[in-house]
Amino acid sequence: MDNYDIPLIKLEDFEITIKNEKIIENVNLEIFPGETVLIYGPRDSGKSILLRSFVHLNEELFNEVNAHGGIFFSGKDVRELDRRFLRSQITYIDTSFVENMNFLNLKELLFLSLGMKISDIKKDHYEILNKLGIAKFFSDMDNLKKYSELKDWSIAEKISLITFISLARNPKVFIFDCILDHLDDFLLREVKNILFNIKSDRTMIISTRNLSLFSDLSDKILFLDSGKVKYYGKTENFMINYI
Model pTM? Predict the structure, then answer.
């Protein structure tokens, strides 16, 4: 059972350098269970590199990555935790997932990401798929065959499928790294309704360049620019004093 008085995620004077270039500088934050935090900032502000730190992903993408300061999940140093365990507790998704889906079919993706067969999808799964606008793809064998190759799906449909997989994995922390920015207004509304319904007992971190899309969903905002924190605190205070 989560202790809501203890931070689930914590950074203490956290910094990242890549090939001796400082990308993230002196970040301090605490994210508690059940909070939704918006990571807001312009392109190349360091949002993705900061968020990937929580799941040990920067080291798989770049050479000469060095992190300094404290980075903790459930009170334990992220750098000392098993990566498979860590990624079962924290789901991180970004736009690169959409591109990688082109090399898989639907059955392969479900098995690799969830260990599921299509026949394992239950009623509660269909309810989420329906809200995400892709339940019809699973409705019968003809549609399953028609939509088997993920390279034939639209970007919005792929994002919906990724969102479903993230929810079905039921992690403690959801990290959506700018991926929701690519949804149209109608689908975004449905996704946000789902996130509103689960936000009371799940921790969410949403990275975006569009503040207006998600400010109503967030409890706190971290405003990042050029790798430096310009603001971290309650959303309402940011909206009053910075906008």
Answer: 0.86
